Amino acid sequence: MTSATPMIALHRHHGHCLCGAVKLTLDIERPTLSACHCSMCRRWGGGPLLSVDSHGAPVLEGEEHITLYASSAWAERGFCNRCGSHLFYRLLNGNWYSVSPGLFDDSATWPFELQVFVDDRPDNYAFANKTLEMTGEQVVALFAK
Q1: Structure pTM?
Q2: CA-CA distance, 79 to 68, in Å (whole number)?
Q3: Which residues, 6+ apart, have CB-to-CB distance to 48 below 8 Å?
Q4: Alpha carbon of 110 to those of 79, 93, 114, 119: distances in Å?
Q5: pLDDT digit string, tens, across residues 47-65
Q6: DSSP β-bridge partners for residue 133
Q7: 138 in Cβ contact with 36 (< 8 Å)
Q8: Are the C-beta atoms of 32 and 50 separated by less than 8 Å?
């Protein structure tokens, strides 16, 4: 007797940077929003990094307009070199991407569920949403597996 593997329904989301030079297509089962409060993300964007996480690479158009910045030994950040829009943060090993939800028109419907590096969050802001919260140590331990 064989057991059937359940099919996962992926939903396609289309987005683009501010100037439209870079277009992204993201296939994801259930998009949810996350916020990273680490000092590097706050320095990059002027506040917490909001993202939708994907275990698959987005399909990119206009790659000649993407500049990559190696922000650590294990990750890089991509942005549009024409308008400066933040596109993604990605781990160098594997296919894990943290993509800017503001690139997608339908992101306003995605639930906000996770905050990471909460121990780095400054005291001058706080989100009212009830989310799962993880410290930097918990996040590093998760990715070290």
Answers
A1: 0.87
A2: 7
A3: 35, 36, 37, 41, 42, 115, 121, 125
A4: 22, 27, 12, 25
A5: 999 999 999 999 999 999 9
A6: 115
A7: no
A8: no
